[in-house]
Structure to design on (514 residues):
């Protein structure tokens, strides 16, 4: 970089957490010495990371209840009652990886289950056995998708202010469309709980929600 | 002797590299790279044209060198032992609006590109990888091993040969043509148009967008369509040989084959065998209609 070219996002973050490659350090330092904009950014990122990483740091204001209530307002499924603690942001996301791994396994299962088997299709009024193993697999994968969607939504909520307005409005519109569909499907399942077709449609809707959130998150 | 020279020239011609054209503009940057190098390309606004060639190098062309242009190895990836190359235009900070930059990029044929834009359109030919935009248009042509296309509100047109295609749009229309084999496509509100008979295995889903399939399913092909409120519409070729499992919670199911009686039917589902019944097509909707008809 030079005076004309600012540090890239990666360089700013590396500078903030001190993980710059040795050969980069000098040029980045040189740029920071003459660029107030990048220096501010690096300081901001460093400050943010310090606050997030330091478990002993408590914010004066607990933001989580507000964030949570915003999520709740836009959700179909309510969060289980918890202590209202802030989620473990900044720690190693072991839970998230486990959830992702579980979703991966569930996705494989749903592929197996969702593919046609030559039997009649069952979206219409139920004729299927109550909760066959096949249906149980779909239910399980739906749960995994749902859990992953919740994790991704929470992460997104924390980064919401950083998303460009056009993308944010598109995302809100799309989430509303998917959540409306999920709501309709859940109501239909409540009336016809053993309908495997409905459950597959529900799993499919959650899969779309996860896809969308990953698309925006990525 | 002259004939031999002509023959030699002709034999070389097909393997010659893609010629750069004057309209691409001057080379902004170029570098030798390994033939399979991962390449990341960023351009917030304007356009990116990516073309494969048979050189082990990257060459970026444009009429002018845009502000915020960068070009080089990705130091972040190098830390993890990945030799990755990245170039493009930095997104302006704060309230600045990105200025439109227009690139033509030549990349090694077997490189894996990841092109990301905000509003810039992407036009890729004979290149595989990930193509992502927020609201630009994406067009992918030629052939590639795998293609992964994502757009929020822009339209996507894939007219390519690929063994694997994953395509996502939200509001944008998704058009799938060409010689793709394994397809996973989904939209939220955008329509999905499938106009190819080359797919072996396909999964298509939408929430509110219509899904239209025009073609002849391959024998032994496996398809799954699901839609919440949008329609699923088939216009099938004469050679179609497939079993259709159609079901909808409250949408209408219309059989446009007047000479074919369903194998099984209820008010909300229908099993129909067209031709020999080799391929398997499953369709589920919640309230979207399902229509089946022969191509005229």
């Amino acid at each position: 970089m030079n005076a004309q070219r600012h540090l890239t996002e990666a360089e700013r973050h590396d500078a903030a957490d001190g993980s710059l490659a040795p050969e980069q350090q000098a040029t980045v330092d040189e740029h920071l010495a003459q660029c107030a904009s990048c220096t501010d950014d690096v300081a901001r990122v460093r400050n943010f990371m310090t606050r997030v990483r330091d478990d002993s740091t408590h914010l004066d204001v607990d933001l989580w209840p507000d964030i949570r209530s915003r999520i709740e307002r836009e959700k179909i499924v309510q969060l289980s009652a918890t202590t209202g603690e802030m989620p473990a942001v900044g720690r190693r996301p072991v839970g998230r990886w486990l959830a992702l791994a579980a979703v991966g396994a569930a996705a494989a299962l749903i592929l197996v289950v969702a593919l046609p088997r030559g039997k009649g299709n069952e979206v219409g009024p139920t004729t299927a056995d109550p909760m066959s193993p096949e249906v149980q697999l779909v239910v399980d994968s739906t749960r995994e998708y749902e859990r992953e969607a919740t994790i991704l939504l929470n992460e997104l909520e924390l980064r919401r202010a950083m998303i460009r307005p056009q993308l944010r409005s598109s995302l809100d519109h799309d989430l509303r469309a998917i959540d409306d569909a999920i709501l309709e499907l859940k109501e239909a399942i409540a009336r016809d709980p053993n309908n495997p077709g409905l459950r597959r449609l529900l799993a499919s809707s959650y899969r779309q929600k996860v896809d969308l959130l990953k698309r925006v998150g990525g | 002797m002259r004939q031999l020279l002509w023959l030699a020239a002709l034999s070389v011609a097909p393997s010659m590299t893609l010629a750069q054209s004057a309209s691409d503009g001057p080379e902004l940057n170029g570098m030798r790279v390994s033939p399979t190098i991962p390449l990341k390309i960023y351009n917030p606004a304007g356009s990116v044209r990516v073309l494969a060639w048979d050189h082990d190098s990257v060459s970026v062309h444009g009429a002018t060198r845009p502000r915020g242009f960068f070009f080089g190895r990705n130091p972040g990836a190098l830390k993890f032992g990945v030799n990755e190359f990245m170039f493009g235009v930095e997104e302006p900070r704060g309230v600045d609006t990105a200025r439109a930059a227009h690139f033509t990029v030549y990349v090694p044929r077997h490189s894996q590109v990841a092109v990301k834009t905000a509003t810039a359109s992407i036009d890729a030919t004979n290149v595989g990888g990930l193509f992502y935009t927020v609201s630009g248009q994406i067009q992918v042509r030629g052939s590639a091993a795998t293609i992964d296309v994502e757009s929020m509100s822009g339209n996507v047109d894939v007219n390519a040969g690929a063994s694997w295609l994953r395509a996502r749009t939200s509001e944008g229309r998704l058009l799938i043509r060409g010689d793709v084999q394994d397809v996973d496509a989904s939209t939220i509100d955008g329509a999905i148009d499938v106009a190819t008979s080359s797919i072996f295995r396909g999964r298509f889903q939408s929430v509110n967008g219509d899904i239209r399939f025009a073609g002849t399913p391959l024998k032994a092909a496996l398809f799954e369509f699901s839609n919440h409120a949008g329609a699923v519409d088939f216009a099938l070729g004469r050679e179609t040989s497939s079993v259709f499992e159609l079901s909808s919670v409250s949408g209408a199911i219309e059989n446009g084959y007047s000479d074919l009686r369903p194998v099984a039917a209820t008010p909300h589902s229908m099993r129909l065998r067209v031709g020999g019944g080799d391929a398997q097509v499953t369709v589920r909707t919640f309230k979207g209609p399902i229509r089946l008809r022969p191509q005229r």
